[in-house]
Amino acid sequence: MSRVTLRVNGADHDIDCDVRTTLLDALREHLDLIGAKKGCDHGQCGACTVLVDGRRINSCLALAIGYQGRDITTVEDLADGDVLHPVQQAFIDNDAFQCGYCTSGQICSAVGMLEEAKQGWPSAVTDDPPEADVELDRDEVRERMSGNLCRCGAYANIIPAVLEAGR
């Protein structure tokens, strides 16, 4: 067992956990933050996506002990009180979820992805390396969100929701 201090959603949390505890398990089992889901537990589905220092990661592949001192944001902290984050609102407006299991990971991934595009990070489908923000279209969103799977097949509504939030 080891004492780990995690900065999650703007607050420090001290937990005692095995050094092999994943960030996902620390969030869910020690901090009762159950938005991030354990889907595949192999980093293949994206249901566990959270933001670390503004970048998206698969928390099922990350050891909690390695994220001390980092700023971890979960889906529970995206809204500002009763005002939803623009991505959350776009998912509701576009009916971009069915069962909802993957939704928190999809939303966190979209928030991180929109920031990456805004900073000009190219994807595999970006035509020319941009000097500023990447212009998002269906192909860009599809490529950039490809690490997040939806077993219900809500992609037809997820892509327009992400595009709407990116405007």
Automatic annotation (TrEMBL):
InterPro entries assigned to the protein according to its UniProt record, in alphabetical order: 2Fe-2S-bd, 2Fe-2S-bd_dom_sf, 2Fe-2S_ferredoxin-like_sf, 2Fe-2S_ferredoxin-type, 2Fe2S_fd_BS, Aldehyde_Oxdr_Iron-Sulfur, Beta-grasp_dom_sf
Pathway recorded for this protein: Alkaloid degradation; nicotine degradation
Keyword terms, alphabetized: 2Fe-2S, Iron, Iron-sulfur, Metal-binding, Oxidoreductase
Keyword Metal-binding: yes
SUPFAM superfamilies in alphabetical order: 2Fe-2S ferredoxin-like, CO dehydrogenase ISP C-domain like
Ranges where the 2Fe-2S ferredoxin-type domain occurs: 2-78
One Gene Ontology MF term: metal ion binding
Descriptive protein name: (2Fe-2S)-binding protein
Taxonomic source organism: Rhodococcoides kyotonense
